[in-house]
């Protein structure tokens, strides 16, 4: 089953576009295939975004220590 394709226009940093075109040439792929892959990777990355463990650790430690203050500030 063929996927529906849609055209869109945007602007891209010249160096990034040059590098992506070079990559497409090196891999023998179409530019649109790399753009599809990059956009799919971006969507997947955001779907699976989780805070880093050290960030969550710092947050939890801060909340334990300053929880009552945070509640007062929220009021």
Structure description:
This protein is mostly helical and 75 residues long. It has one domain. It contains 3 helices and no strands. The longest helix has 22 residues. The N and C termini lie far apart (56 Å). The mean pLDDT is 91.
In round numbers, the mean pLDDT is: 91
N-to-C span: 56 Å
- Beta content comes to under 5%
Number of domains as seen in the coordinates: 1
**Principal-axis shape:** elongated
Would you tell me the structural class of the helices and strands?
mainly alpha
Number of β-strand runs: 0
N-to-C SSE string, H for helix and E for strand: HHH
The number of helices is: 3
- Please describe the biggest sheet, giving its number of strands, its sense, and whether it closes into a barrel: none
Helical proportion? over 70%
User: What is the radius of gyration?
Assistant: 22 Å
Give the low-confidence spans. none
Features:
71% helix; 3 helices; mainly alpha; 75 residues
Please write out the topology.
Blueprint: H1 14-27, H2 31-47, H3 53-74
What's this model, at a glance?
With 75 residues, this protein is mainly alpha-helical.
């Amino acid at each position: 089953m063929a996927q529906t394709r849609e055209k869109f226009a945007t602007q891209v940093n010249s160096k990034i576009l040059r590098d992506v075109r070079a990559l497409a040439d090196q891999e023998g792929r179409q530019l649109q295939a790399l753009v599809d892959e990059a956009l799919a990777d971006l969507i997947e990355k955001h779907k699976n975004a989780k805070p880093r463990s050290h960030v969550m650790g710092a947050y939890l430690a801060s909340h334990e220590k300053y929880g009552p203050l945070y509640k007062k500030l929220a009021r």
